[in-house]
Amino acid sequence: MPADTKDRIVEAGAELFQRQGFAGTGIKQILASAQAPFSSLYHFFPGGKDELGAAAIKVSGTRYQQLVEAVFDAAPDIERGVRDCFEGAADTLRATDYADACPIATVALEVASVNEPLRIATAEVFDAWIVSATQRFRAAGITPKRSRHLALTTIMLLEGAFVLARALRSTEPLESAGATALAETRAALAARRRA
Amino acid sequence: MPADTKDRIVEAGAELFQRQGFAGTGIKQILASAQAPFSSLYHFFPGGKDELGAAAIKVSGTRYQQLVEAVFDAAPDIERGVRDCFEGAADTLRATDYADACPIATVALEVASVNEPLRIATAEVFDAWIVSATQRFRAAGITPKRSRHLALTTIMLLEGAFVLARALRSTEPLESAGATALAETRAALAARRRA
DNA sequence: GTCTATACTTTGATAGAC
DNA sequence: GTCTATCAAAGTATAGAC
Fold first, then answer.
1. What's the start-to-end Cα distance of chain B, in Å?
2. Are B38 and B9 spatial neighbours (Cβ–Cβ below 8 Å)?
3. SS3 track for chain B
């Protein structure tokens, strides 16, 4: 629960953008949800909706990364970490009636070709995720090149599973994606042992 | 090049929805792009924007499936078909300045939690894709269960790669996803041979 | 089927008092 | 920092003549 007004606005924006998209969410709805006065938007964000959007992307993208890293840190090994990520994502989807998946994917697709500043904001988040995951695999002894490939694959499987899961209202995609991510991780670990 | 007015409207809507999303595209923009009179929208689509959206999802989703099936039909074997799909998608992304990826993913994420009729329209398209890909793998001798898993994995890798590629303005994700899809396909084919 | 005109709502954004 | 009032523009949708 954020303390000051600015934080409440960013949090409310992040949540609504995640569920309804950027264009589909009005700033009045955000301020009402944040229980903040209307004028405070332009007080804290002179750049208006776009500036708020960039802040929301950064905050929710960073928080999701921390969440995933916490899952990996809590797991006994990296294979379990991968598995727990997909299972946790499936749990969240079910618990939120298939509303909460990736915090920025919807906005990323919306803005990719029409709003360059926001596109860059989403790119920076994805970049950070890739770097973080790559580092995690490298720490497990996988080669740098293969670690990046595995990081990309894991993230793409998760993002693709989110698209299908939300549309189909099923966690079958998450289970399938998790199994593939696990198989790829094991293959990379096996290659490491052979080296 | 569609002949009559209704087709032009659907085509224009499909293209704009794909690139800018559903909420981010106005019906006036669609009609202007289709060079159609404003009143004809409600003549052909009494249900307004939502009905047009459902028609656009169905048309572009079906066409994309046919495109992919044509790629597989033209390939000498299923492994090459998988590879050609990802390479073709990468070519299209580069050729369109990272605008044309999945025709319905943006809309699917936007509407999943806020517009049930459109969510169902996207689900029907994804379902058809999954069934089509599953059948394709089964025809190659892979078991039904594993064929569905492989179909889901392939589609998810493509969708996830589209998200990252458009945000990062890079085809690296497509290359990585294609390599993983190919590896999974080969593993499934190898398991078939052992049976 | 198409044309013009328009109703109504919501949008993002601003001004000025307090 | 917040309040009220308000703006112009864009949004969807409808009516009625032709």
1. 49
2. no
3. CCCCHHHHHHHHHHHHHHHHCCCCCCHHHHHHHCCCCCHHHHHHCCCHHHHHHHHHHHHHHHHHHHHHHHHHHHCCCHHHHHHHHHHHHHHHHHHCCCCCCCCCHHHHHHHCCCCHHHHHHHHHHHHHHHHHHHHHHHHCCCCHHHHHHHHHHHHHHHHHHHHHHHHHCCCHHHHHHHHHHHHHHHHHHHHHHHC
Alpha carbons B195 and B178: distance in angstroms, whole number = 26
* A2 pLDDT more than 50: no
CA-to-CA distance for A2 and A9, rounded, in angstroms? 9
Chain B residue numbers touching A184 (CB-CB < 8 A): 180, 183
Nearest CA in chain B to A159: B160
pLDDT tens digits, one per residue of A58-113: 999 999 999 999 999 999 999 999 999 999 999 999 999 999 999 999 999 999 99
Distance, in Å, from the CA atom of B193 to the CA atom of A192, rounded to the nearest integer, reads 27
Quick one: pLDDT at residue B195? Answer: 67
Q: Give A 76-115 residues with CB within 8 A of chain B.
A: 97-99, 101, 105-106, 108-110, 112-114
Reference B21, options A24, A161, A168; nearest CA is A24
